[in-house]
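Query structure, 438 tokens:
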């Protein structure tokens, strides 16, 4: 077999090996511990010292000196970037507009299914539940190894459709200045607040600083993901969206060149990215392996790819039932089904963050507005977390309205139940309503 950065040799694995295969994709425990401690210190410092700590950590980690004059990116700067790109790269701006329209179309469809509940109670009264938007949202736009205007659109547009009053964006600074495409996208979307700061310190400022947001959304590196995790309770989060992951399940009908490119497309994001292929067909796996080596050697992102595929790249031979069990156990962020009849597989695959069904449904299309949101849970949290969407920026609120006659009817029952729980004043509160009818 040819030289390959992926685990070799490719061989069939049985069910007994499943836990080990999944565990091998988990992050190093010592790295996680160090990340947790670092983030805890950053959050505490920002909480105590505010922008002083934010600026200090920005200089330490990003090599950029900020002050209150350079911290916020003005609407004028964003508008200038958009105007310049309209002149110089008109097609790119039209592409951004097309992407934004696709994201907005899907978000609008999501909003229509969020139905309020109104139940008329026998005896007089109503029990209701309504969807209401959050007041403030902080959106994180990654920018370590690349800048992502697509993520800006994916996080801001659903918040706008939900009706969030104040949306605050943050994106990592660069010594050479803000990324023009991110600035232009912000202007295109009508985002009024964008700040030149990234990392855990940016997430801390969103929660503890003047915005004091209700929720922080958006993907980032492990420090950003950990900061969001530690802030649960102080504010909401969409999910723990750390280093990206893809699992491709393919059969002999798949195009090995396409599959190889799909694996590299996720691996190129980050040295911590994970790209895994499972197929029952050994000849197909070997063909993909050869394609991977050839494409990696000529890639402009070779340095990142060599790290990610050597650490978290896998080519696995396994039958269908084990491929499904692996997917359900790992719960990958992205799952591509490059098989002859993907619809047949869907009922059994409930744990992944997003599924791309069919050979033409490359994950890359999902990244750029063809359908659902690309901000997805990672690190096995897709077992219980959902993609970012309009629902992320809304909450359910209940309303109870009782007529006097129904209150009187329920009062004895509520009183007895409260007495049984030893809650004297609950019981008295209910009985007073029963004793004083108009």
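Result returned for the query:
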């Amino acid at each position: 077999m040819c030289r390959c950065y992926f685990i070799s040799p490719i061989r069939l694995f049985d069910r007994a090996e499943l836990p080990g295969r999944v565990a091998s994709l988990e992050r190093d425990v010592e790295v996680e511990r160090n990340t947790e401690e670092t983030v805890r210190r950053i959050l505490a410092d920002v909480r105590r010292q505010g922008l002083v700590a934010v600026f200090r950590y920005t200089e330490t980690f990003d090599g950029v000196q900020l002050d209150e004059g350079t911290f916020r990116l003005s609407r004028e700067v964003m508008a200038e970037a958009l105007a310049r790109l309209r002149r110089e790269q008109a097609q790119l701006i039209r592409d951004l507009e097309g992407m934004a329209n696709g994201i907005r179309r899907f978000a609008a469809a999501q909003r229509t299914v969020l139905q309020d509940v109104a139940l008329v109670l026998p005896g007089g009264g109503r029990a209701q539940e309504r969807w209401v938007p959050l007041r403030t949202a902080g959106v994180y736009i990654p920018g370590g190894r690349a800048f992502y205007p697509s993520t800006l659109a994916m996080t801001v547009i659903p918040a706008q459709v939900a009706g969030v009053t104040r949306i605050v964006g943050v994106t990592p600074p660069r010594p050479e200045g803000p990324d023009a495409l991110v600035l232009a996208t912000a202007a295109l979307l009508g985002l009024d607040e964008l700040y030149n700061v990234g990392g855990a310190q940016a997430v801390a400022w969103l929660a503890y600083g003047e915005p004091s947001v209700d929720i922080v959304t958006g993907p980032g590196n492990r420090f950003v993901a950990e900061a969001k995790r530690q802030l649960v309770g102080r504010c909401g989060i969409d999910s723990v969206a750390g280093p990206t992951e893809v699992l491709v399940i393919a059969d002999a009908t798949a195009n090995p060149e396409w599959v190889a490119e799909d694996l590299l497309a996720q691996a190129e994001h980050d040295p911590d990215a994970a790209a895994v292929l499972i197929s029952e067909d050994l000849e197909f796996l070997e063909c993909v392996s050869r394609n991977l080596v050839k494409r990696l050697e000529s890639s402009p992102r070779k340095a990142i790819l060599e790290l990610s595929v050597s650490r978290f790249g896998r080519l696995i031979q396994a039958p269908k039932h084990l491929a499904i069990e692996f997917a359900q156990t790992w719960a990958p962020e992205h799952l591509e089904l490059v098989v002859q009849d993907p619809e047949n597989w869907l009922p059994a695959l409930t744990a992944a963050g997003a599924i791309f069904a069919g050979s033409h449904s490359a994950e890359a299309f999902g990244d750029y507005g063809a359908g659902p949101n690309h901000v997805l849970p990672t690190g096995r949290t897709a077992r219980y977390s959902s993609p970012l969407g309009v629902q992320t920026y809304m909450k359910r609120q209940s309303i109870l309205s009782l007529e006097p006659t129904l209150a009187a009817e329920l009062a004895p029952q509520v009183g007895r139940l409260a007495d049984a729980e030893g809650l004297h004043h609950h019981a008295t509160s209910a009985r007073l309503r029963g004793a004083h009818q108009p």
